[in-house]
Amino acid sequence: MTTYYRDPEVLITSSGVRMNGREFRLPELIQVWHTKGTRSWGVIAWRGALGLTILLPLLVGALAVLTALVLDLSFGTAAAVVVGGILIGVAVVPVADLLLERMDLSYDHGSRTLEIWGRVRSGDVLLMRTNNAQRFGRVYRALERALEPAVRR
């Protein structure tokens, strides 16, 4: 028996599938497909907020430098504003790494609810529902690989 995918909630082998608390032998699955739900605007807004959080200190630093150049300031004051603007821009670098990591995780998890459905003799059954796009892809590919040999028989 070949194991195609295993985690605490899902097991896909060459003989069967265990998902959503139910078990099916591969020949029982007549058809398998997936659906995508609507986008979660909350997730998209969160990504936008992260992007603005990364850019805001850079914009403030650039604005400080531009202000120092445009206004008729004494050399000492202009130099202090320019140095302050540059320091604000540089200070964001360590924080930006953390925020970009959060942004990456947001894209890994996705912005939609994803479902895997199967058709058996008794009707259509929901095999899995998740918003984790990365996990969904792994499970669905494993399910396709498990079903390939069954189709050829």
Layout of SSEs?
Elements: E1 3-6, E2 11-13, E3 16-19, E4 22-25, E5 31-39, H1 41-70, H2 75-109, E6 112-120, E7 123-130, H3 133-152
Describe the protein's architecture and organization.
Helix 1 runs antiparallel to helix 2 (75-109). The chain is α+β, with helices and mostly antiparallel strands. Helix content is 56%, strand content 27%. It has helices spanning 41-70, 75-109, 133-152; strands at residues 3-6, 11-13, 16-19, 22-25, 31-39, 112-120, 123-130. It starts with a strand and ends with a helix. Keywords: Membrane, Transmembrane, Transmembrane helix.
Strand content: 25-35%
The order of strands across the largest sheet is 1-2-3-4
Number of helices: 3
Residues in helices, as a percent range: 55-70%
How many distinct beta strands? 7
How is the biggest beta sheet arranged? 4 strands, antiparallel
The whole-number mean of residue pLDDT values reads 85
Spatial separation of the terminal alpha carbons: 16 Å
Keywords, please?
PH-domain like, alpha+beta, single chain, membrane, four-stranded antiparallel β-sheet, 153 residues, 3 helices
Short structural summary:
This protein is an alpha+beta fold and 153 residues long. The chain is built from three helices and seven strands, in the order E-E-E-E-E-H-H-E-E-H.
